[in-house]
């Protein structure tokens, strides 16, 4: 435009009146004395203006021709110049608009009968396809994985410069698909948890701002109109509009209503394993928000004193990251989020009934609350949850997975009463299809079939995510669990067991142990201090009970250690096994997960099932020793079925 003005030259003085001048002349004629001279003068002015406007039309046509010639010359000059490559700049507003469209498609549109029928079935594995990002598979609409540099700029929270893994994770979360990250160890957990909580807090704050904006516009529409100043008393009276309008729900236009909420206020739920994990989540939310309230109660309610025996015990780094702190598994914290323009304030311990926008709880606490209310496991305050974050899902697998499934059923329940305006409740929640709009975010240190079933196979009466799912897995380790074993001369044997269904996998392994492995172990019943001693590892507690019943049935001399054993029983059993007075030790995988006992003296190992955590295999074999009677090398036997493929891959 500047170049056109330079080519056009100085602007000529305007010779015709403007609209403002014409309107002023008309008002002067109407409001004046009404003399004939004034009317003639004004008519002369108007006629003069019309004649001048006709002459100006020719000048405007000349100006248009000059502009066209200037544009043609400018186009020729641009063609002569060398074309420079355009710089690719991340547009934060474009990213925000894309996220808003994804949010509207996820929560604003109701489901058809065909969609409900399809989402109630298990997601076929063929839907997952590889992407341009390595170790990322997705189902549903494709995601644009390009230009990840400014991904953290779309967030309305305090977030520092993100790493490459955080940006990929944030891009996956912005699609509102289910996201399963299965390589979150104790070292990567803080940064990925921060990214997940930033997405959760950003979704809650954006939703609150939309609600407040709709409240203001609705208040403005319903406010009575004030009389116009300077109105004539002789003007005809117009009846005022009624302040309240009563309409039937069927007569309400869906496009005019502002559906921006669910039946209740809470929009996000964070499932944690212990109070220690809840404290870490609250601390991260405090850092993401601009201000916070009642933070002094966090250490009192969720922390633990430094002199506590739980803080004095030492263990491996991954064990300390979970259990060095308050390990109480009953906890529920309600957080209220307040927005003021660009500021975000989080209010901890705001109550969990009706004042909370975000709830942090353990599965056991929600299960006990549901049983107290006596509504068949349905919690009203969780009926509007749109984002569900599962932190440390691998720890939740060791607690009680049935409790987690009950919590998910409670989240998708129909509330007994609706606190919000029905005309503003989103259609999927009114149709009892809220589970199809909920986004699951799972952070785990390993991949498990139960975690995959959480997003791929809906529970009875529920639907899976309508947008799809994204799986994020890290690169395989350079050294597997076998390569990390301390004793390189250990003989490893993996024996496959035929099995027809996943439900009968445990029974098949236990029967193989009873029929094929146990008879050979009982031949060493007379082992002395120099004889071979065998450690039998059972992954789950039902598997432990079945193997213990088989050993008692055969009259074997053995000791057992499980997660419910007293300290005196554990010390006595380890001593008897180490000194050879008990040739067999039945060891539970849950006991090793919670306590990390160092079992010494074993020369033979039998794994009835592959350990869930890959490093458990190398930790147990690190204390293996040769058979002092025969000098034979240590042996390790692992039983597996075709449904243990994920554990074997680890």
Description:
The chain has 650 residues and is an alpha/beta fold. Helix content is 41%, strand content 12%. It is built from 22 helices and 17 strands. Helix 6 packs parallel to helix 7, helix 12 crosses helix 14 and helix 17 packs parallel to helix 18. The protein is elongated, with a radius of gyration of 36 Å. About 10% of the residues have low confidence.
Count of individual helical segments: 22
Rounded Rg: 36 Å
Placed side by side, the strands forming the largest sheet appear as 1-2-11-3-10-9-4-8-6-7-5
State the total count of DSSP E strands: 17
Quaternary organisation of the protein chains:
single chain
Low-confidence stretches are: 33-64, 73-91, 244-252, 526-530
Helicity range: 40-55%
Give the distance, in angstroms, between the N- and C-terminal Cα atoms.
64 Å
Largest sheet: 11 strands, mixed
Q: Can you tell me the overall shape?
A: elongated
How much of the polypeptide forms β-strand, as a percent range?
5-15%
Tell me, rounded to a whole number, the average pLDDT: 79
Structural class: alpha/beta
Give a brief outline of the structure.
By secondary structure, the protein is α/β, with parallel strands linked by helices. Helices cover 41% and strands 12% of the residues. The chain is elongated, with a radius of gyration of 36 Å.
